[in-house]
Specification:
Layout (H helix, E strand, L loop, with lengths): L10 E6 L6 H15 L3 H4 L2 E4 L2 H10 L4 H15 L18 H11 L11 E7 L4 E6 L14 H9 L8 E3 L2 E5 L1 H4 L3 H12 L6 E6 L3 E2 L24 H23 L5 E4 L2 E2 L11 H22 L1 H5 L5
């Protein structure tokens, strides 16, 4: 497939991290950009990638939805998605929630539409736990892609969202899939590599807007004497399964961002996220007001920087 905007100076990539309920932060930032600058995401960006909760937003935008409508989904349906499973035993290998609520929401959002029906290049990372390898779901932007074109968008997103300890793995055709955040919580690096490999885009032509969902500065304080209590992976051991998964997701996101920074010039990437002194929840709807407040503050303080970074989008009348 050839570059659908070969005359454009930059090849623009939008990448959205995983992070459960913290997707509110990313959705709000994008909704503010949308409101301020009337951005049409399918025209403004040549490739969109999203992992886990970021796959909900990425697939929605690539399907022509508004960021504000996706933000409303988090506000209105999070309690339905994160409804605690009764008598759940919280270990690394058991899940807190049934995926029925999330499946229902995704079914209403995407219907029976398939990845092959999306014209915008879309990347959704997942993890093939049956074969112990990565599993990247993509729209049909390369003629060599034969596996995913008939996969329903809702199923691809559900697979990418199936984070260990939170949701059971998702069966998709002959594959058993889990959260793509286990290896690509920040999908910006995956998107850049695929743009170069599949679309022939030189690294120097890329501009990447990478939207995170927050990172914690601390997970296991020294005073907790963690090493004295580690005899397994469950919550009773001291690892505290959900906290451990959150740490893995944060580590992966930071690693991808750092490696991408070594490949590209600093002016080719804009990373939007925030840091917290506390462990950030992946599943508490009560966090939504705080996440929106953080996102609004960051947009207010960084609006000029964001506008300068996407200047080409705003000047291109075909992109807005």
């Amino acid at each position: 497939m050839t570059d659908r905007n070969a005359n454009t100076q930059f090849f623009r990539i939008l990448a959205i991290d995983g992070g459960g309920i913290r997707g509110v932060y990313a959705a709000y930032l994008l909704a503010r950009m949308e409101a301020e600058w009337s951005i049409d995401w399918t025209k403004a960006f040549h490739l969109i990638a999203g992992t886990s909760t970021g796959s909900i937003i990425a697939a929605g935008l690539a399907s022509g939805m508004k960021a504000n409508a996706l933000l409303a989904l988090y506000r209105d349906r999070s309690a339905e998605i994160f409804r605690r499973r009764p008598f759940c035993r919280l270990g690394l290998l058991s899940s807190r929630y049934r995926n029925s609520g999330l499946r229902r929401v995704l079914c209403e959002l995407f219907g029976d539409n398939t990845l092959g029906e999306i014209s915008t290049p879309l990347i959704i990372p997942a993890t093939d736990i049956g074969n112990g390898c990565v599993h990247v779901l993509k729209s049909a932007y390369d003629h060599e892609f034969v596996r995913d074109k008939n996969v329903r968008i809702r199923d691809a997103v559900l697979a990418s969202c199936s984070a260990p300890t939170y949701f059971d793995p998702c069966r998709l055709d002959i594959y058993s899939l889990a959260d793509g955040g286990l290896w690509a919580n920040n999908p910006a690096l995956v998107a850049a590599i695929d743009a170069k490999r599949r679309l022939g885009i030189p690294l120097e032509r890329m501009r990447i807007l990478s939207v995170g969902t927050g990172t914690s500065r601390q997970f296991y304080p020294l005073k907790s004497n963690l090493m004295r209590r580690l005899f397994g992976w469950g919550i009773a051991s001291g690892w505290q399964g959900p906290r451990f998964v959150s740490m893995l997701l944060n580590l992966q996101a930071a690693t991808a961002s750092n490696m991408l920074g070594l490949l590209l010039d600093i002016n080719q990437i804009l990373r939007l996220t925030f840091e917290s002194d506390h462990v950030l929840s992946l599943d508490a709807p009560s966090c939504i007001p705080d996440l929106i407040s953080k996102a609004d503050r960051d947009f207010t303080h960084k609006a000029a920087q964001i506008k300068a970074f996407i200047k080409e989008v705003l000047e291109d009348h075909h992109a807005i």
